[in-house]
Design goal:
By secondary structure, this protein is mainly beta. It is built from 1 helix and 4 strands; from the N terminus they run ββαββ. The strands form 2 sheets. Strands 1-2 form a two-stranded antiparallel sheet. A two-stranded antiparallel ribbon has the order 3-4. Strand 1 and strand 2 form a beta hairpin. The longest helix is centred in the middle third of the chain and has 8 residues.
Length: about 80
């Protein structure tokens, strides 16, 4: 359903559950994500190195005979 970018040093990322609804013309999405950091990322964080997490979401309406319709796109950054 949603693509994810794998980390070079084998951190594990999964999307456990996604819920989306249209509330008065605004799409609201709630998701449960799991992220297990590798030891190298954990060591970097403990050493004071900043790590940025970037989540990119696209809401697409698949269509049979026409190209898919892009309904919305969101990029959320966590530092």
């Amino acid at each position: 359903m949603l693509p994810c970018v794998a980390f070079a040093d084998s951190a594990k990322f999964s999307i456990d559950q996604v819920r989306a609804e249209n509330a008065d013309g605004v799409y609201v999405m709630d998701a449960d994500l799991s992220l297990v950091l590798s030891t190298s990322i954990t060591d970097a964080l403990r050493s004071g190195v900043g790590v940025i997490f970037l989540i990119e979401i696209e809401l697409v309406n698949p269509r049979r005979w026409l190209p898919d319709e892009l309904i919305g796109r969101l990029e959320q950054r966590y530092e």
